[in-house]
């Protein structure tokens, strides 16, 4: 069994957000998982694509490798929290002075697996890159169920901190009523004893 076949990402949900500059710095300084030599960052309008560059040179340049997709938004970042300033009593100031702020571009990795993590070649490796981004992000959550070497793993990273996570198997709606969908042979009036 090849390495690629024994590693999968089944479920993923992300609400991660971090400044674009911080993301670029993180990718420049990151150590990538086996199989990935680099991550190319491409911007198309307000979409950011982080694409895996395969270590295996036999992979055709036309074969799409896994990629992470983020939307780019602009947020105003204040030097001082405006709510704190408004709530503090400043008897000596007659007029409110302007709070220093700037517009900052953020990369937002938001959505489920198909939205955030695309293409199957090197998908698990790019999931690991996303986990690294999640640990660098101060805002948002990453939850996932993946499989490595036959074992299911739960991942949960909240506001940059890895947290304990469990996989829970629950009875789905189809399983619940499965006994009522067939013929009840015991109470069938067409069958005599």
From TrEMBL:
Compositional bias per record (Basic and acidic residues), positions renumbered to this chain: 168-177
Domain of life from the UniProt record: Archaea
Pfam (any one): DUF7110
Stored InterPro entries: DUF7110 (IPR055534)
Region (Disordered): 168-193
The protein's name: Uncharacterized protein
Organism of derivation: Natronorubrum sulfidifaciens JCM 14089
Upper taxonomic lineage: Archaea, Methanobacteriati, Methanobacteriota, Stenosarchaea group, Halobacteria
